[in-house]
Amino acid sequence: MVVFHHYVGFGGNTDPSKNAWTKPVDVVFPTASWLASYTWTGVELFFIISGFVICMSSWGRSLGDFFTSRVVRLYPAYWLAVLLTTAVVTMWPLVVQPLGLKDVLLNLTMLQEPFRVGSVDAVYWTLWVELRFYLLFALVVWKGVTYRRVVLFCALWTVASVLVTAGRAPFLNYIVMPEYSPYFIAGVAMYLIHRFGPTLLLWGIVLVSWLFSIRQVALYNDGLAVSLGRTLDAKPAIALMTLGYLVMIVLALGGLSWVRGRWLTTAGALTYPLYLLHEHIGWTGIRLLRFHLDPWTLVAVMTLGMLAAAWLVHRCVERPLSGLLKRGLTHGLDSLRRNSDVPARG
User: Fold this and answer.
1) Which residue in 196, 223, 265, 273 is deepest, having the highest Cβ count within 10 Å?
2) Is Transmembrane helix there in the keyword field (predicted)?
3) What region does 342 belong to: left with phi over 0, alpha with psi -120 to 50, or beta?
4) Are 178 and 157 in contact (CB under 8 A)?
């Protein structure tokens, strides 16, 4: 959904001289660009899935295990994506200008946003949202993940989101993230439904989250319409977001248990490196090949090329580097535990 949005519904810039297609996307794709203008809602679905998966994978784990799993999952592919994207936009600064060396190095920490430094690729903004979600959920992991504590977490985060929105406190808003919290909260509640069965309380959490999501999607849609320079009705975006909720509800209730196969593991492994690589590199590739292939063929070529690159990143970088990183972090945490109570020598 996100790749489709960036290639067919966006193109990189409203200025044709800086756009990947060298003209507005609604001219290149008169019909499809309308739908693609709304498939950014794939990010909202991603946040719901993240809430579901993080709650699932944290059950029975220590805080150290939680920290290690998140670092191992996020950083190896990200490091390569930062370097590869920088190399591509440096060699061909056609759609996007490269960042300076200091900013690229800071990007390797994944903490460029709090330092108000631009991202090597615009899609990285979601990673800082994810990190803040991990930080909040780490409080539950620290105390031990239980049904009661997770429900309390969902309730308190929902209340905090409402209060922060009403009070308009910038610092608390940054931590609580009321514009994104409903998706994570809904995903967490859906996992509880999946694990323990539905209750009126859990359905209430999901329903309230969905109602809040309607407002957030409408607000984002209006802002996107301004940046794209065209009118966008919020109803299709709300409908796609709602469809994402429904798919996850069906999954939580076991309605998708029949979908099986090894291909699912591969597809799941490719989504993250695909997301990291596709936007700025893809736009650059489109601009380079714009006058050599027709638009739909070019979209297909770039999408398949990005999938192939994602597979290579997974096999050649994520797998070997993740193992090394996990062993190193596990050893470091074990040393911390062993020596935490050893008195310092005078």
Assistant:
1) 273
2) yes
3) beta
4) no
pLDDT digits (tens, 9 = 90+) for 127-174: 999 999 999 999 999 999 999 999 999 999 999 999 999 887 788 999
Distance CA(328)–CA(76), nearest Å, equals: 13
Mean pLDDT within 252-280: 92
Surface-to-core class of residue 55, CB atoms within 10 Å of its CB (0-12 exposed, 13-18 middle, 19+ buried): buried
What does the chain come to in residues? Answer: 346
Of the candidates 199, 209, 208, 205, the residue with the CA atom closest to the CA atom of residue 253:
199
Rg (CA), the chain: 21
pLDDT attached to residue 13: 74
Q: Under a CB-based contact definition with an 8 Å cutoff, are residues 135 and 14 in contact?
A: no
Residue 85: band (very low, low, confident or very high) from pLDDT cuts 50, 70, 90: very high
Helix (H) or strand (E) holding 210: helix 200-228
